Amino acid sequence: MIRKFFKGFSAHIFLIIISILSLFPFIWLISTALKGIDENIFEYPPYFIPKHFTFENFIGVWKQIPFLLYFLNSAIVAGFTVILNLIFSSLAAYPLARMDFRGKNFIFTLILVTIMIPFQAIMLPVYLIVLKLHLVDSYGFASGYLGLILPFAVNAFGIFLMRQAFLTIPKEMEEAAFIDGCSIFNIWRKILLPMTSPTLAVLAIFTFIGSWGEFLWPSIVLTNKSLYTLPVGVNDLQGLFSANWRYIAAGSIISIIPIIIFFICMQKYFVSGSNEGAVKG
């Protein structure tokens, strides 16, 4: 009994330490954003509770850069990226999970292999393709948005995730719908997608977080400041104010809020089991 207690106690202490280390950058961001100009944010040893709380840094960010415009750009890019990922990933996963054709396993293996290729390794050819297709901001607002969205419209992780979800659905439901005259497209749209809504929510959250926080690709593709996304716009504060870390911290915190709200709104769909008991044995 004592050994079991100490074993569980040591595990909890270890997890608490890891959690604190993981939260340290976020805590430092909040502390920096709430400190006034008379406080040294690089003081050693560091202190996290500001001596004089202030929200002037948050107000200053909104005044110094078009924060609302950057927020809107990020919302458009992330929103369309999520929608396209849900559509294309589920469409690609459907035949890989429910149909039998020659080379299916080989194609699926090739898709999985692409997960091991970092985006930085293919970034140059992707940029050249985007440039040749005139999908950069120099050809207009619509082209600028498309250049940010289309390279991330589908990925191997999403296809794998949706394929695994489709495999859990009993084939009897699909066969019954087919006998009733339902087309393959309607089976995918009206039966399989609603029954995999928890997986769609997981994919939506991962895609939204990745798209919202993407910095490298927008900073390379975009030259028009009116199309900047939030990460690129917040980084622009470093040049405007000679690395005003208080403004950068405040802007970073504001940019994180939509991710938290999106996760809170979608987390109820994490609970799986929507197809439980749909087919009786």
Give the key terms:
single chain, 281 residues, mainly alpha, MetI-like fold, 14 helices
Describe this structure in words.
The protein contains 14 helices and no strands. With 281 residues, it is mainly α. The chain has two domains: 2-54, no CATH class; 60-270, MetI-like (MetI-like fold, Orthogonal Bundle), CATH 1.10.3720. Helix 3 (67-98) crosses helix 6 (141-149), helix 4 crosses helix 7 and helix 8 (171-179) packs antiparallel against helix 9. Residues 272-281 have low confidence and may be disordered.
> Helix fraction?
55-70%
User: pLDDT below 50 for ≥5 consecutive residues: which ranges?
Assistant: 272-281
Q: Quick check: average pLDDT?
A: 84
Give the total of beta strands: 0
CATH topology of the largest domain: MetI-like fold
SSE map:
Blueprint: H1 2-33, H2 56-64, H3 67-98, H4 104-113, H5 119-132, H6 141-149, H7 156-167, H8 171-179, H9 184-195, H10 197-212, H11 216-221, H12 230-235, H13 237-240, H14 245-266
Helix pairs in contact: 1-14, 2-14, 3-6, 3-7, 3-10, 4-7, 8-9, 10-14
Task: Please provide a brief summary of the model.
The protein is an all-alpha fold.
